[in-house]
Amino acid sequence: MTEPTLIEEVPSRAMVIIPHPDDGEISCGGTVARWAQAGCEVVFVLCTNGDKGTNDELTTSAQLIPVREEEQRNAAKVLGVKEVVFLGHADGELEDDRQFRGELVSEIRRHTPDVVFCFDPYRRNHAHRDHRISGQAALDAIFPYARDRLHFPEILLELGLEPHKVLTIYLWGADEPDSYVDITGHLDAKVKSLEAHVSQVGHRDVGEFIEARAKTVGEAVNVSYAEAFRRITMRG
Ligand SMILES: [Zn+2]
Fold first, then answer.
1. Is there a contact between 174 and 120 (Cβ–Cβ < 8 Å)?
2. Share of the chain above pLDDT 90, in %
């Protein structure tokens, strides 16, 4: 196994490709808060609208969509995210098809991130289908589709979006993370951003859980609190 690395670089632009509202905050909220404060422009791309995220018998999917969108905007504001893009797919119904890949290619070419965060689709244990598919489609969208001129020609010809090369990918949920971000000093923002998802956290005290997790992760690199990723460096 490779030595764990503490990531010190702060890119100019980063994108987080997120299956459901609140996954971004849980996986990399501390990193986003730290980078945004340091001047990085961060864009959230929400793949689904989270419309299955309740067990309340009186709440319908149609009622849930605007609630979760508002919560996601509030959470992003706490973290200093520049823009939130809602692709609006139904929760649980992401498909790894040309349309979805094309939507991700458009966002990557439009926002030109140096770094992209997404779910690790190669982990061994079963993961939520939307997580797996969003991760797989994100990786494919980054390479080769967003990078190569002749893929998705309509995105260049009709939208005028030039090919873009992402330099680094950080996967969350990885079995063997190798890259860590010290989020000491940004734990509060991470907790507050998660608390903004009121329909999901309710009155539960998420702070304790988030702190315990970040502390355990931080032990690998001798910092108080951290988030962990698997890094993919794209070749020239
Ligand atoms: Zn999720």
1. yes
2. 93
Q: Find the 162 Cα to ligand 1 centroid distance in Å.
A: 31
* C-alpha 131 – ligand 1 centre gap (Å): 6
Cα 215 to averaged position of ligand 1 atoms, centre (Å) = 22
Looking at residue 142, its pLDDT comes to 98
3-state secondary structure of 226: strand
The predicted pLDDT at position 202 comes to: 84
Per-residue confidence (pLDDT) for residue 203, from 0 to 100 = 77
**Cα–ligand 1 centroid distance for 24 (angstroms):** 9
Burial of residue 220 (number of CB atoms within 10 Å: 0-12, 13-18, 19+) = middle
Q: Residue ranges per domain, the chain?
A: 5-233
Neighbours of 3 (CB within 10 A): 6
With a cut of 90, say whether residue 3 has pLDDT above it: no
> Does domain 5-233 sit in CATH 3.40.50.10320?
yes
Q: 3-state class of 109 per DSSP?
A: helix
Q: Looking up tokens 């893009």, which residue turns up?
A: 85
